[in-house]
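Morning!

This is the sequence you dropped in the shared folder:
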Amino acid sequence: MNDADIRETVRRGLEAAGDPYTGDLTHKSASMLKEVAVPLPKTWRFFRFDAFPHPQASFHVAVEVSTGKVVFLTGRPAAFGQVLAASKATLQTTRDAVAVARAYLDVTRRMDRYLRVVDGIEDLAWRPEPTAEEKKARERAEPRLRSLLKPPAAVVKGDTYVVTLFVRNGTDIEQRTVTIDAGASVTETRKVMLQGLPLA
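The structure's back. Tokens below.
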């Protein structure tokens, strides 16, 4: 599928799902299309549409190549599990599980709030001109962040992978636990670790 085919396929799919407004955004002259690398069988492809000038109108979809079926993913974590099951993906290693969990958080996140997986404190951007109170808050937070933040890691529990990731969600740091079982269902829990950091 070329760029025009993708846009038309997504437009028709979203229209059929009862969302013609979002479907129309795929053809706006200012909208940008980008394929997202997701470590699943290539029977499915994942795309991000950025509909300027409103970032909150940006969204992710998955497209089944053979049928043109479109699944809207933004803000819909359960939809990712449906695609995972339909793809008949078989995770072989903890590295596979980490890659899938990262992709899951990326393509299902809401677009009206900054969210990013962080591997360490070096992934955080602090406000460049902090107030005195913000500077103190950073100094208090940095020692804990250095010991807390680690790259995503997965463990195997029976036929299930449990992946632990840390994310920046707005100005908060959260621990996310993404569980991927043999039936390809995906569940997630979250725990807020630090709140209201002076992040840029």
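Headline: The mean pLDDT is 92.

More detail when I'm at my desk.
O.
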